[in-house]
Every structure is written in structure tokens, then in C-alpha cells.
Amino acid sequence: MAYIDKELFKQDIKMRYCNNCARPNEIKCRACHIDDMLGEIEDAPTADVVEVVRCPNCTYCENMKCTNLKDSTGNPLDVAIFDYCSQGLRKDAKKSFSVDNSFGGLVDD
Predict the structure, then answer these.
(1) 72-to-33, 52, 59, 77 alpha-carbon distances in Å
(2) Mean of the pLDDT values across residues 31-41?
(3) 58 - beta bridge partners?
(4) 6-13 and 33-43 helices cross at what angle (nearest 10)?
(5) pTM beyond cutoff 0.85
(6) Which residue has the higher pLDDT, 27 or 90?
(7) Distance CA 46, CA 44 (A)
């Protein structure tokens, strides 16, 4: 299953199909099948998804070991290239987050 960014998809459709329209006006758009399709995309149900941060791209990954998660002896866990977890934080993240223990999740700082 693949998830899309609806706004980027609609922009792409408009750029490919609407920019070359011979009559770019509101009346033409209301009669066009592309406008109907854009409406269907807008009305489509959305899924609650978050982009995955793979371990090599995570701030907690050092030399393919997760410094945030420990094994039973307290050592950092070995990770693989395609591994990920719910606590991953992208190395180039522009926002900072902290853990709110009362909420049990990440919150904006």
C-alpha cells in the first residue's frame, strides 16, 4: 500500500493537465473531468500515517547501534539499514521534540 500527499498530487495533476488548457477559466474547469477527479481526491478518506525514520537516518543511531534503546545488559541495540522504531528522530529534523511522560508521547518543544 502506498500513501500520497494529496496536495502535491493535486498540484502535479493541475500542472500536467490544466496548464495547457486552451480555456483556463472557472467555467471550463467546472465542466472538465479533471476538476471532478480533483474533487474525488479531496473527498477521499485519509489514513493516519507518519513518515518512518530508518535507523541510519536517526539521531540515536551511531555505528549501526541505537543509543536510545538498550538490550537486557544495558548495551545499545544493533540495528540494520531498514530498521525503524516509534522513537526515531530524523538527524536533519528542523523541530525539536521531547518526551512528555504524562502524555506518553512526543510533543513539540
Answers:
(1) 59, 25, 22, 10
(2) 80
(3) 90
(4) 180
(5) no
(6) 90
(7) 6
